[in-house]
Every structure is written in C-alpha cells, then in structure tokens.
Design brief:
By secondary structure, the protein is α+β, with helices and mostly antiparallel strands. Helix content is about 25%, strand content about 30%. It has twelve helices and 35 strands. Strands 1-2-3-4-6-5 form a six-stranded antiparallel β-sheet, with helices on one face. A hairpin with a 2-residue loop joins strand 34 and strand 35 (about 620-630). Helix 3 packs antiparallel against helix 5 (about 190-205) and helix 7 (about 240-250) runs antiparallel to helix 8 (about 260-270).
Length: about 625
C-alpha cells in the first residue's frame, strides 16, 4: 500500500480509508497545519484511460466551482510522480448507508433533517450549473458531530449534458437512478431530486423502493412501476411526508419538484404537519357526464298551444318536399363524417404501424450484433455487464423486454451482457515493465494495482515479485501487489554542509529532498548547517527517495517548559507540540509514544517573544489539548 508516502511535500498518507471504481482514498496529515485531510488518488492503471481521466478531472472541476458547508470541499489538486490526486476535506464519521444498515430505518424527523441538508448542497451545485447524477447514501457522509456532507462528484456533468452514459453504458447506481438515467435520456437537476427521493424513501423504510435480480430489472421498475407504499413499511410516517416523497419519485420530471429549494420547503412544512398543496398530484380530468336528451313530442298544427303566424306573401313549401330536403342534407352530413372518420383512422393506423416495432431476440448474440439488430429496429440500446461462469464474455445473457414484445421506435432495449467467468488464473507479469504489467492486469479485470519499489540492480520499473503469484485464482476487482525495481543509489554524506550544498548533492545522487527539520543551536558555526540526515550516509536506497535534513537555526532568547500528562494507551501514538505565534503553528516537539502507562513529560519551549504563549498538543494528528506556557 501507499501508506507513508508524502504528496507535494505536504500531505503524508496515514490510513487507507477505502476505494471506488477509479480511485483510492487515504486519510492524510497536512504537515504544514497538522490537520487531517482526505487524499483521493486515481488508480495508476487508469492514467492512460481517457474516460477515467475525464471523470477524475470532471470531479476536480466540479468541486473547484463550489464551496458549501454541506459539501465535501476541495482543498488541493496535483500530480505526484505517476499519481494524480485530489485533496479533500476529511470527514471523520460514517456514510448514511452505514447508519441505515445499523439502525434499520430512521425516524421521519431525522430523515427530513438529513434530506434538507442534502438538498441544500444540491441547490448550491445546481446554482453553479452542476448536476451530481450519483446521489445515494454511500455518497452522503455524516460527521461525528452530526454535520451532513455530500461527496463524490466523479460522474457529475455541467448543465446541458445529454445523457448519463459513456459509450452507451449507464453509469451511476441503479437503485437510485432516475427513469431518465435508466433510459439514457437528458438528465436535468430534477434527476438529482428523484435520487434524493429514493434516499429519503430508504431512510424512512430501511429499504430501497425497487429491487431485482439484475440491474436491468431494477432499471425497468424505475421506468414503469410505482414504488410500494411507504406506510407498508413505516406506518407512522405522516401523510404530508409521504406526499413529498411520492412527488419526488414521479416518473415524469415535470411533475416532480423543480428545484432542491422547493423540495426542502415542502419538507419543512411536512415536518410541521402541513400538507403541501404542491405535493398533491391532481387527478386526471373525468369525461363529462352525458345528460339525457329530452324527447320532443310532435304536435299537429291544430293542437299546437300557439298557432303559427303566416307571413303575407310567403310561399309555403309542401311538408313532404321539405322532409326530403332535410333527409338529403342529413345523409350528406353523415357521409362526410364517415369519410372523415375513415381518413383519420387510416392515418392513425399508418402512424402506429410506421412507428411500431417488435423487440428482436438478441439473447445469445454478440453485443455488437445485438446492438446492430436493435438499432435496425429503431430502438435505443442500453446494456449492463455481469460476470458469468459459462457464457463467454461479450455475449448477451438476457434482455428486457422479451422477444416479440410490441414497442415503439425510440424505446430502449436493455440487455445484460456477460463479462465471462468471475474466477481466472493470475497471469505471470514478473520481468515485465510496470506499465506493461499494469495494462495486462487491467485487461484481466484487476481493480487496483499497488506498486512497491525496492532497491535492485534490475532496470527501474521491472516487476520482481507479484501477489497473487502466477497461476493462483483471483476474482476480478481484487487488488494485486507488485514489487518493482526502484534502481539503487548510495546516500551521500551531508552533515556539516550548508543546506544549499546538501540539496545539490542530493539531486546529483538521484534522490529528492524531504521537508527539513529545524533545531535550535547556540553554536554560531552550526547555524544554516546540516546537523543530521535520514537515511544515514552510505545507505543504499531507491532512486528518487526523499532525504530528510536537520538544519541548525539560531536559538531563541526566551525559554519555558511545558509539563504534559499523556494518558496511557495500548498502542503507539504520534505526539506533536506546536507553538502558536501570530496565529501560525511552529513545531516545538515531534515524537512517537510507545504503548504503556500514563506518562508525564517536560518539553522545552523557546521563542523570540516573551510572556504567556499558547501551545497546541496533537495525538495522532488530532488536537488533544491547548496549554499555556510563560516564556522568560
């Protein structure tokens, strides 16, 4: 692993936190401030993969545009050797997914509070033209002090991105994807609100609304099925809260909340028991009720209650002739109506026939042939990939909808495609160069290749050992460790030289300078000189290794002592004492405490200022206490 590495001469990797599809995440210490940070490192095998580089760069770009108390904020970006990395705010806590697993489900008041903070972060992102596209409990971090932070903009898009896929492959988490993500349609801010609705549903019920045997089955439910009622799993949920969730989960984006702020306002009203009128979906209009037509009774002229008035000079048309004219007109009108209806029906049938399609049978075909067949039918192609022990890689395992299902052109055919067997034999990469070895392992499905350099006379970068060994079984996605040649060089003698001369000699030897350590000295001849070095002179080490120099500086005129009581622990701990002058922290002591009993220590403190000063004490890079020391 990479623990102990220092990036940008500032961020020292301390603890491995976890990994995602394209990156490793470490807790690190900012050497300058002593604060913990999170360092997200792109896996080295993706350095030449354009898609992953774009996604990593997109996350950095998205994060750089935002700064919000409910977002994991970006602190730095850089490249260290072969590693590209982001430095992010460190959140000491758990993911919302972990909390749901532990508690089963959350009470609706807590779920609302968490959701409102997610929506606050999303409103900030949307205001900056950024759509997250992967809102899920795994990407919501809950700090130990209760703060809610939304993380991971790895697949974010600027407003106006056309689809959620790259190369026709759906990205994002299918259990939390919106219907438009599942179909590869245009994704707007309302897609994030749908995913937030799924997260709120899961907090309230302890389960996601849609489950299935395959990602495709889950995606189809997002597209066409209503979610199970929340009250089936959490009957105590108020109707006002249920109404907000159901509006967020509308299939049609236009029927959802149109902004995160609107959804948050509705939740605040629901929390207070107020049913938001905007959350009540109108019922479809009912057809008008046909009133019975009153029958008109024929009345003869002699029996009419009011006799007809005769207009002088008017010509009377015989009753029989008038009846024939009326009958003819009625026949013509009826014929015209029949012809119009016939034309309309023919046009409608023609449109339906020209736009209709039958789902082709693509099961068993190669993905290339299946895609081409679907596209010839006028259908959109969507696929998901899974490992299969008996079906070769690249062959379609199943499809939705089934063969011969009536469809319309432009509908999506979702296929599950085999990645081949899950277990394979580990290839032999010993003797290869690191880049070649990493590419071969990537092709075989390894998720993370960890390189460890050692002193060797072999060419730099040559793979010397591998774990798992050649021929051993492995599961795609697991890590592999490679021991590679770092070359060799001897550390020169640097003590007694000026810092400038020492650095020049370090570089000539193929090494690098680490952060210097400064110690006070009362000997004028030692000021600015190298008093000690690590590694020691004469040691053999790999090329590029850092060398730490201890440099003498003029002793400070004012002295004092810090009496410090350190509680016992069953493990080693790092102790650091920092003097605070003008809001800057100056290192006064660094060391490692061994496991054992409680310890009382006297630590000398010196400065060029006198009087009472503040000292901050850190244990394992966490603030332990603040002490006051008087300097004389």
């Amino acid at each position: 692993m990479m623990k102990g590495m220092v990036f940008a001469e500032r961020y020292k990797l301390e603890d491995f936190i976890g990994q995602g599809g394209m990156s490793l995440v470490y807790r690190a210490v900012d050497i300058r401030t002593g604060h913990s940070v999170a360092v997200k490192i792109l896996k080295s095998e993706y350095n030449s993969d354009k898609e992953f580089l774009e996604r990593f760069q997109r996350e950095a770009q998205a994060a750089s545009l935002m700064s919000h108390h409910n977002l994991v904020n970006l602190l730095d970006v850089g490249v260290e050797g072969e590693y590209r990395y982001l430095v992010l705010e460190y959140v000491n806590g758990s993911t919302l997914k972990d909390i749901i697993r532990q508690k089963g489900r959350l009470n609706y008041q807590t779920a609302i509070q968490v959701t409102i903070r997610i929506l606050s972060a999303l409103q900030h992102a949307h205001d900056n033209g950024i759509i997250h596209r992967d809102i899920k409990p795994q990407n919501v971090l809950i700090h130990a002090d209760g703060h809610v932070k939304v993380a991971d903009f790895g697949i974010a898009r600027m407003t106006g991105g056309a689809t959620i896929g790259k190369g026709d492959t759906v990205v994002g988490s299918v259990h939390y994807s919106s219907p438009e993500q599942a179909t590869g349609s245009v994704v707007e801010a309302t897609s994030d609100l749908y995913s937030t609705g799924v997260v709120l549903y899961e907090m309230l019920t302890g389960r996601v609304p849609f489950v299935g045997d395959t990602p495709v089955a889950v995606a189809m439910q997002h597209i066409q099925d209503p979610p199970p009622p929340i009250t089936d799993f959490a009957p105590e949920t108020p109707p006002a809260v249920v109404a907000v969730v159901m509006k967020a989960l509308e299939k049609d984006p236009k029927r959802r909340f149109q902004s995160a702020r609107e959804m948050a306002d509705a939740l605040m009203r629901a929390k207070n028991g107020q049913l938001d009128p905007a959350s009540i979906q109108p019922e479809p209009p009912r057809p008008p009720v046909q009133q019975p037509v009153p029958r008109v009774q024929e009345v003869s002229p002699s029996k009419s209650p009011r006799s007809r008035r005769t207009i002088p000079g008017a010509r009377r048309i015989p009753v029989k002739k008038r009846s024939k004219v009326l009958s003819l007109m009625a026949s013509l009108a009826l014929s015209a109506a029949v012809v119009s209806l016939l034309v309309f029906s023919i046009l409608r049938i023609y449109t339906q026939v020209s736009q209709s399609a039958l789902a082709p049978d693509v099961t068993g075909l190669t993905v290339e042939d299946a895609r081409a067949l679907a596209q010839r039918q006028g259908l959109n192609w969507q696929e998901t990939n899974i490992y299969h022990d008996s079906i070769p890689a690249g062959q379609v395992i199943s499809q939705i909808p089934e063969q011969d299902t009536p469809m319309q052109k432009g509908d999506s055919l979702l296929a599950t495609v085999s990645l081949g067997p899950a277990n394979s034999a580990m290839p032999d990469v010993c003797g290869l160069g690191y880049e070649d070895a990493a590419n071969r392992l990537k092709e075989r499905g390894f998720g993370n290749v960890v390189a460890m350099k050692v002193v060797s006379t072999s060419a730099v970068g040559t793979v010397l050992e591998q774990i798992p060994q050649s021929g051993a079984a492995f599961t795609p996605g697991q890590s592999v460790e490679l021991t590679i040649s770092g070359g060799s060089t001897m550390v020169p003698e640097l003590t007694g030289r000026s810092r400038e001369d020492a650095i020049e000699l370090i570089l000539e030897s193929g090494l690098s300078e680490a952060s210097a350590i400064f110690v006070e000295t009362s000997d004028p001849g030692q000021i600015g000189q190298v008093l000690a070095q690590t590694p020691a002179s004469g040691a053999m080490t790999v090329l590029g290794s850092p060398v730490t120099l201890t440099i003498g500086i003029e002793s400070q005129p004012y002295q004092g002592e810090l009496a410090l009581t350190v509680p016992s622990s069953d493990r080693e701990r790092a102790l650091r004492v920092m003097l605070v002058i003008d809001e800057r922290e100056i290192t006064e002591f660094e060391g490692t405490l061994s496991a054992g009993d409680q310890r009382v220590m006297i630590i000398p403190i010196s400065s060029n200022v006198s009087g009472e000063v503040t000292c901050r004490v850190y244990l394992d890079n966490e603030l332990f206490s603040e002490e006051y020391v008087t300097l004389y």
